[in-house]
Predict the structure.
Amino acid sequence: MTRAFKSAILLATLTFFGACATPSLEIDSPSAITRDKIAQLQKGVTTRQEVERLFGAPEMEVPTPDGVGYFFKDVNLGSLWILYDDEEKVAKYKWSR
């Protein structure tokens, strides 16, 4: 292999892995899971209706030992898991982007 070919392969590999490590696509979307919206979540205060106004309908509902978990995702590869209490208020949540 020539030095130029090896350099091209190295550059392509670094570009590929750099793209995989990108934390967000930064696409503006009304249901995007953003730091500002996450800051609005208050355990025992924020209702299920308010959550769905911020993030849209959940992608899926999953039974857990603590109740039903609601999973939200957005076009920027962000995700949010929420458990509600008996009054339909946020009990727990986990956000990743």
User: Anything to note?
Assistant: The radius of gyration is 19 Å. The first strand starts at residue 60 and ends at 64. The CA atoms of residues 25 and 76 lie 5 Å apart. The first helix runs from residue 3 to 20.
